[in-house]
Design goal:
heterodimer, B: 1 helix, 44% strand
Chain lengths: 114, 113
């Protein structure tokens, strides 16, 4: 099976712009979670989608949003970018939401905000 | 989810076993212990997980103490490619929270020649 794919892998934006990142889960997986990784804060949970519905949300401002499509692919959007949004954004997929289904991570999208 | 405590860093000689400890003294009865690793700037890689019994797969072994307050990840024959940050995570089973993995600072394992 192909793994979790994320596009683009690298992105450079300027302050005030918005950005959309994409995640394609492993085939058959219905849950997609998003994480932000920065040197200062480490890996932090953003949100999780299952069957096109947001099931869980981390402690991030409303500038961070996401959605999931009927084919389980997910996008996350960050509006009005700030310098502090520079990070590695990771998505992870699993078969089901919750339970003990293992989350498998993609390679990440490295976002740089100038 | 219960908090975990791991050493900041460890060294291991190539070919030797790497034993990475994790303390999770507040773990509850329905919480699992998961281990992931992250090689520089890549996505975290799942290694193994367990509830109360010891587990083994092709990558590693997981030893959980009888009181479940601590665990040890064992890489039986470490190689240079095992150099990474290893995260021990306690994960609940409730649908509303199990999807949210809480990563700590992990253990930076350096495998040397």
């Amino acid at each position: 099976k192909a793994g979790v794919t994320q596009t683009p892998r690298y992105l450079i934006k300027t302050r005030g712009q918005q950005v959309t990142l994409s995640c394609s889960p492993i085939s058959g997986h219905r849950s997609v979670s998003w994480y932000q990784q920065t040197p200062g804060q480490g890996l932090q949970f953003l949100f999780e989608y299952f069957s096109e519905t947001q099931r869980n949300k981390g402690n991030f401002p409303g500038r961070f949003s996401g959605r999931q499509f009927s084919n389980s692919r997910s996008e996350m959007n960050v509006s009005t970018l700030e310098l502090g949004d520079s990070a590695l954004y990771l998505c992870a997929s699993s078969s089901l939401a919750g339970s003990t289904d293992t989350q498998y991570f993609g390679p990440g999208t490295r976002l740089t905000v100038l | 989810d219960a908090k975990t405590t791991q050493p900041t860093s460890m060294d291991c000689a190539e070919g030797r076993a790497a034993n990475l400890p994790c303390n999770h003294s507040t773990i509850s009865g329905n919480e699992y212990v998961y281990w992931y690793r992250q090689i520089h700037s890549q996505g975290p890689q799942y290694i193994i997980h367990g509830l109360k019994n010891n587990e083994t797969n092709e990558m590693a072994s997981l030893i959980i103490t009888e009181d479940r307050k601590s665990s040890t990840l064992i890489l039986p024959h470490a190689t240079l490619r095992d150099t990474a940050v290893y995260y021990c995570i306690v994960r609940g089973r409730d649908t509303g929270t199990a999807s949210k993995l809480t990563f700590g600072t992990g253990t930076r394992l350096q495998v040397t020649l």
